[in-house]
Amino acid sequence: MSGTTPETSATPSGIVSSVGQGIDYGRFLDCVHCGLCTSACPTYLQTGNENDSPRGRIYLMRGVVDGRIGLTPAVRRHLDLCLDCRSCETACPSGVQ
Q1: Which end of the chain has the least Cβ crowding within 10 Å, N or C?
Q2: What is the mean pLDDT of residues 49-71?
Q3: Which residues form the domain of 32?
Q4: 31 part of a folded domain
Q5: Per-residue confidence at 60, pLDDT binned at 50, 70, 90?
Q6: Rg from Cα positions in the chain
Q7: Which H or E run includes 56?
């Protein structure tokens, strides 16, 4: 992907940063995709959309960081629907945070 600029996103403070910057990639790999988190996720329970589940969001984040998918408005919407309630963490047998 030489010659292209990385996708950017605005942080809550308004600072623009590269997607995936500061994320330990190994944390994405901790997820074993068992789906136990889905029953604890309020946005997944409301929408029924896999992309609105913690597992789905991990797939989306990996896809963006790997360059397989772009940070489109649809992807941003799925990520933004996370309430940061962390209910998924208590349900996760692998300890994903």
Answers
A1: N
A2: 93
A3: 25-91
A4: yes
A5: very high
A6: 14
A7: helix 54-66
DSSP 34: -
Mean pLDDT of the 65-78 span? 93
Q: Is residue 30 part of a domain?
A: yes
How is residue 87 written in tokens?
Answer: 């209910």
Question: Which of 64, 65, 72, 60 minimizes the C-alpha distance to 24?
Answer: 65
User: Do the domain assignments include residue 63?
Assistant: yes
Between the alpha carbon of residue 96 and those of residues 3, 31, 51, 79, the distances in Å are 35, 6, 17, 16
Task: Give the chain's domain count.
Answer: 1
- CA 97 to each of CA 4, 47, 58, 68: distance values in angstroms, whole numbers, following the listed order: 31, 22, 11, 23
Q: Specify if 32 maps to a domain.
A: yes
The pTM score is 0.73
